[in-house]
Design brief:
6 helices, alpha/beta, 163 residues, Rossmann fold, 5 strands, globular
């Protein structure tokens, strides 16, 4: 009899806050995402990720690349603003709490600069009124960590379609 594989559903991908799903389970998640969210029939879209947590950046990059997106990542809002990728992004996945400039401050700067790409805020800290503040500030969606692969891909898909 085969031992039941145990996983912790805290993570959205390998290395993020929990046990990595292995073997058939992990491959099944990726296969499902590829089938449902593959964008291979359109031009490759560039998703930029800004998060101070390296494991989150790596996991999100891996997931998004696995379904056909081009991805770049930045460890801080300042690094993103200083990059030559600012005008190239089709969508931004942005952490709320980071050292230095936080997600809300970057969101304000992008609005003042008339940047037109959609922003999806991600956070581990759900505070009262934060979601309403984010949406009124221009964010297309707010996801509370841990969130599922499908929740992120759905938010990106909706953001890109609305663009």
């Amino acid at each position: 009899m085969r031992a039941k594989q145990q996983t912790t559903p805290r993570c959205i991908c390998a290395g993020v806050g929990g046990t990595r799903p292995t073997g058939d389970l992990y491959q099944g998640i990726i296969d499902t995402c590829r089938k449902k969210w593959s964008f291979s029939c359109v031009a490759v879209r560039l998703i930029s990720i800004v998060d101070d947590d390296e494991s989150i950046r790596e996991a999100l990059c891996g997931l998004l690349r696995s379904v056909g997106f081009a991805v770049n990542s930045f460890a801080s809002a300042e690094e993103f603003l200083a990059s030559d990728q600012l005008g190239s992004a089709d969508c931004l996945v942005l952490d709320v709490r980071m050292p230095g400039m936080g997600g809300f401050e970057l969101l304000r700067q992008l609005a003042v600069s008339h940047c037109e790409f959609p922003v999806i805020l991600i956070t581990s800290y759900e505070e009262e009124g934060m979601r309403a503040r984010a949406l009124s500030g221009g964010a297309g969606a707010v996801l509370i960590k841990p969130f599922s692969e499908e929740a992120l891909l759905s938010a990106i898909h909706s953001a890109l379609i609305a663009q």
